[in-house]
Each structure stands twice: as structure tokens, then as C-alpha cells.
Queue: 2 jobs
Job 1
Amino acid sequence: MLIIYTTQITNRLRYAVDTLFEKVTNIPFQLTADINLYQQSDADCRINYSAAKINEAELWIQPHSLLFENNINQQTIECFEWNNLKVFFKTGGDFPFDIFATSFYLITRYEEYLPHTEDEYGRYGHNNSLAFKENFLSLPLINLWQKELLKLIQQKFLQFPIPNSQFRFTPTYDIDIAYSYLHKPLLYNIGSFCKELFTGKWKQLAERAGVLLGFIKDPFVNYDLLDALHEIYNLHPVYFFLVAEKRKLYDKNISPRNKYMQQLIRWHARKYLTGIHPSWQSGDDAAILKNEILLFEGIVNKKITRSRQHYIRMNLPATYRLLTECGITDEYSMGYGSVNGFRASVASQFYWYDLEKDEQTDLMIHPFCYMEANSFFEQHYTAQQAAEELQQYHDIVKFVNGELITIFHNHFITEQKEWIEWRNMYMDFLRKNF
């Protein structure tokens, strides 16, 4: 048993301790402000989270003020190196920094509630973040800090058992464009055919004609390949489908009322976890989001509780509050749509903490760290460079026994000349690691 003493129990402190211990490592704990209970406890491990040391038989972490505040203020942050890791909120005690406050600051995305610049899509720009500025965006820093904390606990409390957490890999897929040519409106295909004819795009024209005449397979239809890969490597993926009723701006999937689209969604929903991929349009209109969720539920005939924002279009706290109101319990957008890395500096799922309301919510956040579209469009990597990047994320997440969540799109994993290397990259990654 682990007991933690503090002079004041706040929502923030309880959340930070619960996230760092019980949620990530399955270590039960007791948090108390009763010093007599703390001193008389027969717990295997004692942590004193207060300004003064109490006795030698404890691990003393001196607090920063953050977890005892109830407002949102610009914080003074000065990073320094400790055990080859970036840390901040320097304090005294047996630990050189307040690991609870630093973890809280990063995992709640505290800085996203402060004034900041947005990128071209109206999202929080990753270059605002402390992780980007201090060059630790590629690290699950909270998990690494926690690993060091557990080492110190084991050294000081030899009899305290540390549970063994397990590395997990969860592949996820965003189905933004289910088909390249098939099942689209006749006028759309005629228009595209004419455009390709007059612009001399002979290869694309031939491919379109071949698919529509039934001579060749639609290049985006690779669901059988993915299914086979999941069977071979015993993987449990999550699929997110874009079901925008209007084809507009960044929403280019075929109509969710198309019977072939519905068949595709139903087939996946019977075999895998599936979720809504809220359209770009829904970011401006709550009614559209609610309609898309109802439409999706009507197709699969069951409640939909998972989601990931199209183009990772999200702003805190508005997006998460709206999703919660619509019945979403598990959210997969915690990452950047502009660069790969750990947006919340963690490779483990966690409950969202609404900073404005200063309370933990029931919305479970599943952070991703790698999306192939970021590698290609934003970072301008070759398939080989992307393979190396993906492998680095795999290795560091496995080192901390976290969960690696990746995003791939079906239209990246094709046999078309421009994408075949990316298809092979993904297959090689699975073959090598699983």
C-alpha cells in the first residue's frame, strides 16, 4: 500500500496522483491530510508531499504551487536536465522537481488554455508548446519521469511491490475516403473523367475507367489486406469513419446514405471497434455533429462512444465538452495534425481534466504519437525516413511499457506507384515488431 501525505487535498492533486500511480501503473494509494494517520500507517511506501520533511522513512517531494491553485495563470517555467531528462518546477526534497505538478501541467494541456497562436486550420499550433520549444515532443516524458520515480521508490522501500505494466500496440485507421472511384455519383465521375481527359492525366483516367468497368480493383479498397494483417499479428484496431452528409471542403467521403458505404461500416463494426470521425463541418455546428453520430448509430444499430476529429480539429475545452454531451466516452484526437509526437507527453490513456471547471471528467483520452500523413505532408519525409521515425516511437513506448497508438489512412496503403513504398513501410513495421 502507498500512502501520500499533503497539507491540502485539491482536485488537481488528487487527479495528478491518481493518474501517475493508479491509472498508469495500477498502484493503489491513499491520499491523506491527516498527519497522524500518515505517521501511524503501516503502508509499505510513504510519500510526503509537503513543504517540510517529516521523517527519514519517507520519500519527500516538495510541492510547487500549481496543484493548490484553482485558476489558470501563465506559469514561470525554467527547464533543466535531470537523469538525462528535461524537467521543470524545481523544488527541494528527495526529488529535484515536483513530478505531480509537472505531470499535471503537461497531461491537462494547461498551456492550451492560455493565450496562443493558431495554425492555418484554427488549431493549437504545436510550436507554441513547451515540448516543442524544449525539444521533448518525441518523448513520453511523463512515463519516463514515472519510471525514475518508481526506481527511487524501490531503492528506498525494498518491500514495496511494483506491478509490471505491459506494452500495447493499437493501430487505428481514419477512413476519410473509402473509395477512390467506386460508388460516387455519376455526375462526379463524368466530371472527373472529362477533367483528366483535358488535362492529359492518362494514367489516372485509365485507372478510373478500369475500376468503373470492373477490370481492376479500386486502389483504396485494401480492407482485406488490413484484415489479414490484423489476423497474422493478433492486432485489435480501431476504425474511424467520416460520415459527413455533405461533400464540402475537407470532407470528401462518399455519402453515408450510400448502401455500399453502409455495408463497409457495418462489416467493420461487426468485427472491430469503430468510432465516429467528426467532419470538418461539424466543428462549426454542434447540430451537424449530433446528426452524424445519430446517422452512424443508425447504420451500425448500436451506441457509438468513440471518436477522433477529422484533421485533428479540436480546441480545449469546447471540443471535448461537446463530444461528452453527445455521448462520447473515448476520444482519440490527443496528438497533433501538424507534427508527430506526444502532445500530452504521455503514452498511456488518461481521463480528461477540464481545467476551466477544475475537475476530472469521465472522458477517456487515448493519445496517439504517429500519423503517416504528418510524416508525408507536414514533415516531408520519405517512406524510409517515416519508417525510422515510427520505429523510434515504437521503441520508446515499449521501453516505458506504454500504449503505442498510430494513425494510418486506407488511401495511403495502396499499390499505386506513389504510395506503394508507404504500404510496404507499414507492412515491414508490423513484420519486424509483432
Job 2
Amino acid sequence: MNTLPSSLSQQISETTLSQMLHQMTPAGADDADLYIQHSISESLALEEGRVKHVSASTSQGIGARVIQGEASGHAYTDSFDAAALMDTAKAARAIANSGKDLAPQAIRPQALKHGLYPANNPMQQVNMETRKLLLEKLDALARSIDPRVKQVSASVGSSFKQVQIICMNGASFVDERPLVRFNISVVVEANGKRETGGAGGGGRFDLQRLLESGEAERLTREAVRMALLNLDAEAAPAGAMPVVLGPGWPGILLHEAIGHGLEGDFNRKGTSVFAGILGKQIASKGVTVVDDGSIAERRGSLNVDDEGTATQCTTLIEDGVLVGYLQDKQNARLMGVAPTGNGRRESYADPVLPRMTNTFMLAGQDKPDDILASLDDGIYAVNFGGGQVDITSGKFVFTTSEAYRVKNGQIQHPVKGVTLIGSGHEVLKKVSMIGNDLELDPGVGTCGKAGQSVPVGVGLPTIRIDELTIGGTEA
């Protein structure tokens, strides 16, 4: 059975938690929960050949939430003093302060359905000195690959978050969540021209894997390759043309262009372009999109979401038809459906929102080479930079970090300054080929919503979009 992590159990008792739940929850409440968190994180960053930044932090606190209808009361404290805890419970109750108290509930530890990652601090096997030596080694590797490499920046960070979620009925879930991330960027220079390239990766595992797998070295070579590629890149064309998206990280377009629009709160309130059209064809046949928080060791995965609901694979679009939304408990109840395990919060101090976990399109039957060969004149976008989307309209803008001009099915040359402009609900209708090469991203995604950031994953097979507006720089 799961119990309160040792880092917290000496400071807050189950009796106190039961009293809080009793104090905060009137009989008329639709739902309530307690969210207890203890987090530690460390990071090192290298610049100009030296590790110049080292940071370490610890945080803990408890959030209390009461829900009644569409209203929710959320209060939090970082003090585990008994008086502060009871004041927090009373503050959460203020949103629904009528009616008698709910009968006292005993705290009942529950077994987790999933065991997707090790319940260990990812930092404990690799000391600071070893991490420092890794970054210095990678700096030397990057510079040895090509004399045009002039600057290297690299960082390695890890965190370990222990949470306990106690539901209104006393059911208690404990999840211990490791997270590792590595990033490297390089600047190259030739003939007075400078370009950059970057790469990164991570997931819910320990730092030892990063040292032993050779992944950090591979990513370093990839960053140098991308920077050198951009030295030779030509100006991007402008106008409407077919685009092929490569597998993996380009799935960020899916995440931004349609993922947010499929979250329950936007659809319940009618502010999403996808609101009220369940069962309608919104994409080409063959397009199936899922959100799956139950994939082992992935950055966006969780054993349970931040309300204690087990994560699952939720189909959002099936063969082009909209079949579901991403739901937390509150929005699911108000919409008359079951929660999908997508209730997430950045920390104990934040309210729960329906959020994505790992969102990706399933593979099709087409061979990637055949998809590329189908381009008479278009763009092959292999890697993406930043992007943004308007939830209400579904319109998006993305920039690429690696792209190529293709003519007569052959790659001609790399191009830079490529901006992809479109509308999420329209672009999916223009998908005409879907590759058999589904890849998930390397583990670098972070999603922002309502001021909260949470780790996520994306994925995509190679796909052809018959027409997309390209904002380029070619005269």
C-alpha cells in the first residue's frame, strides 16, 4: 500500500489530514481533495567552457480544494503547523460554506494502477562533480567535431516530486515522480556568418542512464549538425504549398493546433472551435489522435493525475472523427462524462486544469520515402522551434529549426526562416498521407496554460499536408 512519503510523514499525520478534510468539506460539496507535495530539484549549466551556474531548491506545501457546481475554492500553505493547516481548510470551504459537515473520513491508502517510472530520486546515484565532468566533456566533444563551433551552452537538470492526493471519500494516492532533462546548444561561425543549433532529451528516469546510454553525446553531435546545416541554408519561400512534417517533435504542431482546443474546460464553456461537434468529421480519414499518460518513463506520463485518477490512453480523433475531450473531474462531471486522468497542476499552490500528457497521431500505412517523393514543390519540416495558437479560432504560427526545399520528390537544400501558418481544424482535413514511422519526441516538452507549466510529450509519424501557408523570407 502507498503511504505518505517519509519526507512528509514526520511533519503531518493522517489524523490531521482527516481533520482537514472534515473541516473543509460541507455535505453539499460535489468534490474536494487535498494535494500534498514535497519537491527537490538541481541543475547545472555550462557556458564558455565552464560550469557557471549551479542551483538546488526544495519546496513543500499543501493545497486544499472544494468544488460545488462550476465554482471551486482553492487555498494553500507551505506551513505544516496545525493552525495553518486548519485555516487553509476553512479558506477552501468558503466557496461552498452552506450545509452540514461531511461525515469524517478515514484516510485509506490505495494501490496505484500503474508503475510507470522508478520511485527514486534521479539525483541520488550521480553526484554534482560527475555531472560537472559530463558537461565539460560534452563541451570538448562539440568543439572537436568542427572548428567552426565557437560557443557551447549545456545544462542538465533533475527533479523529484513526491505527492499525496486525498480524495473527498478518504481514498489516498501517493506518487513519486522523477524527471530528468538535458539540453545543449552551439553557435557556429564561418565567413562572418553565425548560426545556432540545439538538441535535448529527458524523461522519468535517473541521471545514470544519461551517463551510460551515450544519449548526451548523440544529442551533442545533433546540435552541431543542425548549426552547421543552418550555415548553408537558403532563404525560405513564401506562399501556399504542400508540406511534409517529419516524425517525432513536429508533433508539437498537433499539441498546439488542436490539443488545447480539445481540453474539457474550453469545450464546456463553448470557447473552443471544437465545442459541440463530437461525432463530426474534423480531419481526413486515417487521422487518429490520442493522449496517453500511461507510457512508461515518458516526460508527460503520470501514474495518477493530480486528482488521483489513473492515467489512460484517451482517443480524441478516430479515423478523422472527433470522439472525445480531455477531462479533469470537475469538467467531466459538468459535461456528464467520465474523467480521463488529465487533471493537472504545476504545484500545490495552483488549481487543477484539464491538460495534455503525451499527445500524438497514430501511425498510418505510407512509407516515409513515398511521402517525401510525392512533393513536386514543397517544404520538408524536420524540426520545430517555437509556436503559438489561438484557442478560440484554432489559428497557429510555428517556426522550424530544420527544414528543406523539395522539388520533384528530391531534397534540394536546407532553408531557414520557415514559418508555418494555418488553422488546426482546417489543417487536419488536408492530411493526405500518414507514415508508418510514428516517433515520440525526445523528452523536452513543457506546456503552458493559465500561468502554469507542466511537462508533456508529443509525437507524430511522417505526414503530408496538401497545403499550408509558408511565411518565408525569399524575395
